């Protein structure tokens, strides 16, 4: 079973890091195969950028995301650009403080940027969202993603990042959105 | 980062970084390069890693100098490598010939992007296949490997250093941007488990009797005496005799150049690496390599589910060409299909060795060939079988 996930937002929101951390969690801390790809070049600067992961129990052949099963959008532009690429019935997760989804769209939202600002550092918006995504999709265990965060971010920022992750995860529990 | 030479453990890293770590694990001693997309991460990683263990990294003024420098590093006894792409590999071609002529073992990493010229700096290509083989002037042979995953980029970098040393020949890691930039699990073994083949050393003492280009063994590879080891050594790009001295006569040229070509031909079975997938009863033989082989494997799996007798020969080594294996497959096959991200380079080579039709699945570069496109070609061929 092949699952495709696309993380999207504008440049600087850390969408590449989201893909890397989730991929790291899945490839190294779950018994799963995982490939991460990202856009390079001028198209990856500014505007809507994305990182993509493919997850499977079997070795992954074609490494690119074709139709995401899970789409995460941290900006309106990313939502507009990538929403049409998602599979029918895909799980759509947004920062609902920044994205105004179309009326008929069934999305899961968290005001991730506001949470991050409340924690004192807007830069951890992506990690708040990682917590929310982990809880809502159940794609990886909480501990696996926490280990991947610890292995990836700068040592002195680990406590802040784990707090950010917990904020997103717990919000999903509170809203009874967790899988 | 770490002052360990070998980062034993499980990692989530891209193919460029895995290549750099493969070089570290192979005990690279000298890197000279001029960073260029999409190979930049190889140099970036080694610039940080090599000084940690006391090795030398130099960012050169251009690719000509980079290639020249690694020949010098190699002949002074260090395992030496450079990494480049696109126009960079074209600039290295002249001195790649010098490495072949001097029999200087070295590893040249080419993370292929779309060409010709500046082409597609950030997007993949597989169109340097023939250049790798024929890019410098004159008759010579090289070895080339093409990884299909970051793990294999690590493994084949180690193998490339070993082969370069065993056969005193420039060895190319002919990867592509997809593999260079995709991130996947890479398992780095214990240092003691990493194979390390030593260069063949002179058995004669340094008293003037040793001839640095005299190949007395069946493998046609002369032992190597490095500068500074007490032997009189002379290296030149001119046609040279067994002492290494210029001797521009037809007989010496015939003998030397023939040996440069023959030493790879007679050792081909040791050098060549391929992988079979569903080939046992295959009437249609699909051939692919590098990133395209990932789509090819999926296409074969899907075609098999529809009852089509197709199998995949994945070329892990690109050069020398596995002609014995292809001829064996030809004894049972009706058609060959070659899937590659160029307009038909490897398919020409396959055509030379088989009498069956050879169908190309091609794209000029910039976009990985999809499994669906290869499956379509398989189904079209199967309709004719």
Given as residue ranges, the uncertain stretches of chain B (5+ residues, pLDDT < 50) are none
Mean pLDDT of chain A: 94
**Global outline of chain A:** globular
Distance between the termini of chain B: 56 Å
Quaternary state of the chains? heterodimer
Fourth CATH level, the homologous superfamily of chain A: Pyruvate-ferredoxin oxidoreductase, PFOR, domain III
Total individual domains of chain A: 1
SS strand fraction of chain A: 15-25%
Main sheet of chain A: which strands, in order across?
2-3-1-4-5-6
Figure out the total of helices of chain B: 13
Describe this structure in words.
The complex is a heterodimer of chains A (179) and B (385). The radius of gyration of chain A is 15 Å and the shape is globular. In chain A, helix 2 links the parallel strand 4 and strand 5. Chain A is 39% helix and 20% strand. Chain A contains 6 helices and 6 strands; from the N terminus they run E-H-E-E-E-H-E-E-H-H-H-H. Chain A has one domain: Pyruvate-ferredoxin oxidoreductase, PFOR, domain III (Pyruvate-ferredoxin Oxidoreductase, domain 3). A 6-stranded mixed β-sheet of chain A has the order 2-3-1-4-5-6. Chain B has 385 residues and is of the alpha/beta class. Chain B has 2 domains: 185 residues, Thiamin diphosphate (ThDP)-binding fold, Pyr/PP domains (Rossmann fold); 110 residues, Rossmann fold. Chain B is built from 13 helices and 15 strands. The longest helix of chain B has 18 residues. Classes of the chains: A alpha/beta (179), B alpha/beta (385).
């Amino acid at each position: 079973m092949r699952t495709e996930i696309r993380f999207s937002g504008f440049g600087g929101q850390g969408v590449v890091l989201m893909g890397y951390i989730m991929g790291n969690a899945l490839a190294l801390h779950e018994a799963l195969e995982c490939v991460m790809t990202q856009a390079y070049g001028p198209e990856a600067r500014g505007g809507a950028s994305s990182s993509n992961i493919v997850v499977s129990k079997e070795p992954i052949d074609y490494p690119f995301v074709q139709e995401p099963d899970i789409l995460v959008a941290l900006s309106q532009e990313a939502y507009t650009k990538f929403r049409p690429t998602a599979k029918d019935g895909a799980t759509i997760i947004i920062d609902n403080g920044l994205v105004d989804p179309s009326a008929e769209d069934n999305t899961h939202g968290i005001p991730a940027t506001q949470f991050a600002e409340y924690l004192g550092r807007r830069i951890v918006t992506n990690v708040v969202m990682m917590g929310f995504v982990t809880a809502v999709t159940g794609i990886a265990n909480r501990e696996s993603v926490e280990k991947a965060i610890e292995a990836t971010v700068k040592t002195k920022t680990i406590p802040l990042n784990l707090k950010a992750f917990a904020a997103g995860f717990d919000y999903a529990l509170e809203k009874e959105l967790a899988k | 980062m770490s002052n360990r030479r070998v980062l034993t453990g499980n990692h989530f890293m891209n193919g460029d970084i895995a290549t750099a770590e493969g070089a570290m694990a192979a005990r690279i001693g000298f890197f000279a390069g001029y960073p260029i997309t999409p190979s930049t991460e190889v140099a970036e990683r080694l610039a940080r890693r090599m000084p940690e263990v006391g090795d030398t990294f130099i960012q050169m003024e251009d690719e000509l100098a980079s290639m020249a420098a690694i020949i010098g590093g190699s002949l002074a006894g260090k395992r030496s490598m450079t990494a480049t792409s696109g126009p960079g590999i074209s600039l290295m071609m002249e001195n790649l010939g010098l490495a072949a002529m001097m029999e200087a073992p070295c590893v040249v990493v080419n993370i292929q992007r779309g060409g010709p010229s500046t082409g597609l700096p950030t997007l993949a290509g597989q169109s340097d296949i023939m250049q790798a083989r024929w890019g410098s002037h004159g008759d010579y042979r090289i070895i080339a490997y093409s990884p299909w995953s970051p793990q294999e980029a690590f493994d084949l970098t180690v193998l490339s250093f070993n082969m370069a040393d065993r056969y005193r020949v420039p060895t190319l890691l002919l990867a592509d941007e997809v593999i260079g930039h995709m991130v996947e699990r890479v398992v780095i073994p214990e240092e003691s488990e990493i194979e390390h083949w030593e260069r063949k050393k002179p058995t004669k003492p340094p008293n003037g009797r040793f001839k640095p280009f005299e190949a007395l063994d069946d493998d046609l590879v002369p032992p190597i005496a490095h500068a500074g080891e007490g032997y009189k050594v002379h290296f030149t790009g001119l046609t040279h005799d067994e002492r290494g001295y210029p001797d521009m006569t037809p007989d010496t040229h015939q003998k030397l150049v023939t040996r440069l070509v023959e030493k790879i031909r007679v050792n081909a079975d040791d050098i060549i690496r391929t992988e079979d997938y569903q080939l046992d009863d295959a009437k249609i033989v699909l051939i692919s390599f590098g990133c395209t082989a990932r789509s090819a494997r999926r296409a074969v799996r899907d075609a098999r589910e529809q009852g089509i007798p197709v199998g995949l020969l994945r070329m892990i080594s690109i050069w020398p060409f596995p002609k014995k294996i292809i001829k064996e497959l030809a004894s049972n096959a009706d058609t060959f299909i070659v899937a590659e991200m160029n307009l038909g380079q490897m398919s020409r080579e396959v055509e030379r060795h088989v009498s069956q039709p050879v169908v190309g699945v091609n794209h000029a570069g910039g976009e990985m060939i999809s499994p669906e496109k290869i499956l379509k070609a398989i189904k079209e061929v199967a309709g004719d079988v």
